[in-house]
Write a structure and sequence with these properties.
By secondary structure, this protein is of the alpha+beta class. The protein is built from 2 helices and 5 strands; from the N terminus they run ββαββαβ. The protein has a single domain, classed as BirA Bifunctional Protein, domain 2.
Length: 118
């Protein structure tokens, strides 16, 4: 019996002059208002507060998030980089280009059972 495994690597960032990373990240008016922090909350299924607007960003009810982890380069890393929300805020502060990349999403999915042909 063989396991089925899929690995997906995706760039998450600004596109076309708009901050965009998650197609389903909309505010109550239905307009797209995404940021690195909102994108991270969506992918991790967590709740956070936007430090600029005070808006509560919550994807805590999102289904299908089994594990999240922040992968950092080896060696000494500043303490702020170990906190995903501080890291998102710093990325937003530094990345000003229209086509900036906030982060990379690495998603792996495996199935313990295989389809058998009969």
């Amino acid at each position: 019996m063989n396991a089925i495994y899929q690995l997906r690597l995706k760039n998450v960032g600004k596109r076309g002059g708009k901050k965009a990373a998650s197609k389903s990240a909309y505010n109550s008016a239905g307009t797209k208002t995404t940021s690195a922090r909102r994108s991270m909350a969506y992918r991790t299924g967590e709740r956070t507060i936007d430090p600029e607007s005070g808006e509560v960003i919550s994807f805590a009810n999102k289904k299908g998030v089994c594990h999240t982890e922040l992968l950092l380069p080896p060696g000494p890393v500043p303490d702020w980089a170990k906190d995903r929300w501080q890291l998102c805020d710093e990325v937003e502060r530094v990345e000003k280009r229209v086509n900036s990349r906030f982060f990379k999403e690495l998603a792996g999915v495996s199935s313990p059972t295989a389809f058998e042909s009969r």
